[in-house]
Amino acid sequence: MHESVGVESINEITRGKFQEAAGALLAYRDRHIEQARAQTRVGRVLQAANDKGLYQELMNYCSREFGEQQLKALSTSQLSQAMTFVDSYVQPAKVEEPTRQKQALIDLRLLLLSYPWQLGGVLFTGFVLGKLF
Q1: Chain segment 88-128, per-residue pLDDT in tens
Q2: From CA 114, how far away is CA 107, in angstroms rounded?
Q3: Which of 36, 56, 73, 133 has the least C-beta neighbours within 10 A?
């Protein structure tokens, strides 16, 4: 404030510069309030992301959309977009691993489709040998 009014101490402020000094104080207060609000928003976005296990996805989103991963460097509207992303994010469905039985059936089908004549020949030979012995 002292620099904006052009004085070294508060005692040097004249009546003519009082309005200017008051305006500088109000601007400082508004800037401080906005910084506190932004810090609160950053905390809320991080808390929501951590609660949902989306921290890395949030960082990827911010990097892709805003070119910045530091949430403190984002504007109020960008923080709102990040919060919307966290709130509306849907986890992709996990593909379930086939069990051993299912995998064996898949492998058997693949074998049948890949080598039908060879498998038929082996089965026929086994049938004939089974009848003889």
Answers
A1: 887 777 766 667 777 887 888 888 888 888 888 998 999 89
A2: 10
A3: 133
DSSP secondary structure string for all residues of the chain: -HHHHT-SSGGG--HHHHHHHHHHHHHHHHHHHHHHHHHHHHHHHHHHHHHHT-HHHHHHHHHHHHS---GGGS-HHHHHHHHHHHHH--PPPPPPPPPHHHHHHHHHHHHHHH-HHHHHHHHHHHHHHHHH-
Tokens of 25: 């104080």
pLDDT 10s digits, 31-75: 999 889 889 999 999 999 999 888 999 999 989 998 988 888 888
Residue type for position 96: E
